[in-house]
Each structure stands twice: as structure tokens, then as C-alpha cells.
Amino acid sequence: MREVYIVGIGQTPVGEHWDRPLRELGSEAACAAIADAKAECPQALFVGNMLSGSLCSQENLGTLIADFAGFKGIEAVKIEAACASGGAAVRAAYLAVASGAHDLVVALGVEKMTDLPIDIATTALASAADADYEAAHGITFTALNALMMRLYIERYGVRKDDFATFIVNAHNHAKSNPNAMFRQSVTLEDYASSPMVAEPICILDSSPVADGAAAVVLCSAERARSLSDRPIRILGSSLATDTIGLGTRREPLSCEAIRRSAQLAFKQARVGPKDIDLLEMHDAFSIVSALSLEANGFVEAGHALPFALEGNIGIEGSLPCSTLGGLKARGHPVGASGAYQIVEAVQQLRGQAGKTQVKDCRVAMAQSVGGLASVIVTHILGN
Amino acid sequence: MREVYIVGIGQTPVGEHWDRPLRELGSEAACAAIADAKAECPQALFVGNMLSGSLCSQENLGTLIADFAGFKGIEAVKIEAACASGGAAVRAAYLAVASGAHDLVVALGVEKMTDLPIDIATTALASAADADYEAAHGITFTALNALMMRLYIERYGVRKDDFATFIVNAHNHAKSNPNAMFRQSVTLEDYASSPMVAEPICILDSSPVADGAAAVVLCSAERARSLSDRPIRILGSSLATDTIGLGTRREPLSCEAIRRSAQLAFKQARVGPKDIDLLEMHDAFSIVSALSLEANGFVEAGHALPFALEGNIGIEGSLPCSTLGGLKARGHPVGASGAYQIVEAVQQLRGQAGKTQVKDCRVAMAQSVGGLASVIVTHILGN
After folding, report:
1. What was the ipTM of the complex prediction?
2. Which of B56, B83, B202, B361 is catalytic?
3. CA A357, CA B249: separation in Å to the nearest integer?
């Protein structure tokens, strides 16, 4: 396989973009990434998106955005892997360059979720679960995650309030990120009084439905040398799945697909958990943060909360997490979030992360989780 | 790039499968392809599908089908490129093997369109057009193709009834295909009296909405040698796009994306139109057949109808087309059709096409057209 580098990044602010259509958000991020790379028209565009058909009545999304961005005639497709679609688009772009089929491509994540009433978005999001055996019975994604959180609390005897540490951390890091949706602090008191959504998940455990787009330019080693004096190398890239339904897993809390995806990426990158300088994790719900730290091997099962409470996940900690706000505070436009994670990891590796810059940052990990941890994309990036 | 081979094919009959869910159709075809290859669990599954979100409330389709097929934990994603999704899934699988990331993968196309009333499927199909500037005004895909057909008839002064040759041909070829939806003959008289849908497109100009799934196993040269004594090689693979909307094209009838995709595939395969022994074309409407023959360079602009009328597209003709019924008579489960085309091309190259076997068939071309010829996938296969 050829080596693959990232030489350009672009993003729109995350928020409620009622005045801007899908094509405009997507092409703004894609063109910004191309401009950042000082590159010309890419040879291919891989669009990560989950809900354009259900919420915007628009498929053929690759063509739509290639057309609107002015990338005339190029290869363009949409990649769907539920909430991990953005990460999956980066992986598809990686494979296209690694194969030698293309030398310079764009991976884009884009989603528009706020134009319609929230119950329609909630129903659409449930299509990431098993439509026939889970969603058909009325269970939402929040309710499914609540089952996991309840089991976690009972299994390990932890305090529900201790999950607040992930939320406080994410909001702290979002404050100086101009693209983040929520730039205000959250306190332990705020968390304790946050209204319940699906017990034990409260509003502040949950990332917000949002609109946004993020893009990266991937290229071959040769193109990277000519385009950039500090290209970021993709050291590892992997995608793994689990059963789609929660009911068919032997051990719901072990998150086998996260474990497998991480192990594949670690092996390819020839690093281990101790070598990771920062983690952009899929903190869609605080329980997912805890389970991710464990299944990835950063801590043992049941030890994520003490690890976070001891300050390890802050910018000065041993494993800075959600360094520009994460899904929780930057916002979670589902099919775009995986691409935002890669953009943010590149910002850190380049030393462009502003007030939340991680010092001596050399190896970053970004992980996109789709469904109820049923599809996982992991990337490890390095200088 | 590594060489890539096809060593297994599988398909379900095309029809109205009201009793069988998406996961069952998809995994039947995928497992049949694996069994045909005498292979074990694949390393990745690329699922071509357009409408599972809109019509089945199911995204995360890669995970769903990998899970149900028993492909535990593997990489699995959905690829969407409108009606060309099946072809795009084969290309994604091709890139994954060509890159060296995987040695044995499955490309699957699956679609389920007949459970809901036809107007819902029609509306969903319009999401392949420009949702904001075309579909929002109520235009359907049939109406968009009718605009092309009307322009073609006026520009070249041809008779509408001469398009019947494509329909008669496709239905002739479907008669002996056990997986085809329509296995009855159609006469010139049937065509002349066929009810109008969107003038000048009549019912018999149109391929049917349908359910179905088709799959191919792709692998590296090394695996192909150990698995099969007659692997089929992918000689060329390409994907190209045009503007998504018809209104922004300088010359609607020239189908620039078909031309570009064909030229890329011809160049990679080191062949030209004269070397192609059979063409599985995207005959969703008879006008698309005519435009495909021209834009691919088999005939000059305006000459497709005489070419077809002279018997060239029959099994004994100079360019046998739609040899197992095509989209018209085998049926058109949109996101699956591109995969059916590849399966059928392999049947021909292996000499397993039954009564419509093309003699001395060495090089086959399959082309999947999405949207209004806005996204095109071309594959050239050889022995």
C-alpha cells in the first residue's frame, strides 16, 4: 500500500444553519480544504453522510457536492456508516489514494439535521439501529445508550454524577473553538440538575443534533512533498463492525468492534495506547466516552471514570480528549462528525489548535462510532 | 495497483419480495457469492444501495448485512451513487483489494422498493435528481428522461416507435433467465399500444421498480489462483460525474459523464469499443440505451437506433446488449442493478449464460448510470 498524507483541512461552524442548503455547507468545507492545501481540483470526492435522503430528500450526494463545488466530472460517491459516516469517508479516500487510483482526493463529512422538527430527526437517527427488531418497537438511540449506561453503573458501582467529568472537559475545550456549537462552560451543578431524557441519560450527557461540514485533502507521498512542508501522515486506518442489535451481543459493555478497530489501527501504525498524544473520541453520550477509553485499551474495564476524574483527559493530562469540544460541545452533525475529528486531530498535530493546543503532540487518534458501537472507524495520524 | 479478480457471483431472483426483508435478500446474494467462490468469510463488505433509509427506515446497512450474513466483525459500509450504487460498490471493493488493504471482499447491491405504494418509491427515486431545483417542482425521473427522449426525437428526426427495438431485445433475452422479473416476449405491437407515462415515454420504455440483490467476490491475484481455475479479471474500473441537474448542461444529449467514464475504463483496460464482446448497459429507459451506445463510442451521435434496428444488439449481433434481460426485463432494483450487471457479465465470460450465451465472449463491459446520467460507473472484465 502507498503511504497517504493529509495536506488540507476545512470546516464550517457547527450549528443550526437554516439558511444554508446541504450543497453549500459541503462545498464550503471541501473548497476550504482544497484552498488550505493550495491544491487544484481533486480527482475524487468521498462524502460521508447518513441522513440526506431522509431529512433533505437528496441522494446522489457525491454528484451534488462535486457539481456545486466546481469539481467538474470527478469521481464522487456517498459513504454511509451511520454516525461513523464521516470517518468511513476518510477511510474510503485513504483506500483510493493507497491503491494508486488517485493522487489527490477530498474526504468530506456533511449533515443537515435541524430544518425539520426534532422528532423527525430522532426517528431518522433510529435507522442506525436495527429497524425491524429495535426501532420498530419505538426505542430511540438515547434510550439504547441509556440501557448501556444503566448496566455500566450497576456493573461497576459508579456514581452517575461522575460522568459529568466528560461533559465539563468537552465544554472547557470548546470555549476557544470558533467552530464549536456550545462555547459556554458547564459545571458539576449544571450536570446534577440537567433534565432527564432517558434515565440515566440527561440532556447534558447528550451531544446536540446539528448542521455542519468538515473536509480533508488526502494525497500521495509525492504530492504531499510538493504541496506542504508539514504534511500529516495517516499511520493507521481501520473499520470494524459488531452485531447491529444490542440484544445479540454476549457482553454489551465490551464494545468488541471498538476493540477490534483499535487493534487493527494500532498494529498498522506500529504504536500502542501509550503512544497516543491525544484522542478525538466519539463522545455522543458520556457513556460512549467511558466505554471507548476502555475498549481502546487506554484503561481497564470499569476504570474510565476514575481515569477521567484524575485529570487525565484535560489538555495537560496524560491523554487529552475531545480537545476542541468533541461531539458534545463542538456539536454532532452525525455524518460529518468523523470528518471534524480528523480535521481537529490535524489542527493539533500542526500546532494550530489555539488555546487548547496539546504540547509535543506527535501521534493523534480519531475514532468514529456508528450505531450502538456497531460500526467503528479508527485513524491514527502522525507528523 | 494490484490486479483484482472476480471469483464468485450470487443473486436472488428480481421481483416483488414482500415476504423477505432487506437483510435476507442481501445476505442470500452475498453468501451465494461466497459459496460460489468456495471462499471463507470475506474481509470486507461494500453494500450498494440507494433507498434503504427512505423506504425501509434502515441505514447502517453494511453492518446489518454483515451481521445477518455471519461475516462477524468485518469492515462493512454502504455506498450510495443513486441508481449507480451497485456499480459504485463494486468499484469500492475493487479499490480495497487493489490497495492491498484486503485480499478477499464482497461487493453487494441490494434494494427493496415494492413494500410501499408506488408514489412513495417514485418520490424517493426523485432524490437522485436535484432535490432543491428539480424534484421540489414535482418533476419525476420518468419526466426528466422524457425531456431527453423528446429532444432526441426532435434533434435526429427519428421515429418514437423505433425505440421498441431495445425493449423487444431485452425481453427476448430475459426469457431464459430464471432470475428475471419479466420473462415474456414483447412485440412491436405491444410497444405501439403501451400506455403513456410521461410523453413520449410509455410503460414499455420503462424498467420496473423491483426488489433484489446481487453480489460478487473480488480478490487478489494470489487468492484468485488458489480459489478458481477461471477467475475473471477486472481490466478497467472507473467512476465519473456530470452536473446533477439537467438544466445546467451545455449539451444534454452528449452525456459527458458516460463518455468520460468509458474513456477512463477503456484506457485502463487497453481496449476500445471494437474489442467489447458484450455490453450490459443501464437500460432503465429506452432513451438511456440509445444515449449510452453513442456516448460510449459504439456508434456516432444520432446513430443508435439504426444500429439497434440492424440487429447488432442481439446475442448474435456485433454488440450483444442486455444479454440476460437488462434493467428493462430482468428488473431494476435501483441500488442492486449495477451489481446484477457485473454478475451477468461474469456469467457470460464463464460461459454460464444458458440460452443467451454470447459466443467467444472474452471482454465484457458493464455500465451503471445514476441520476440523469450524472454519475457513471464502468467496468471492463476479461478472461
Report:
1. 0.98
2. B83
3. 47
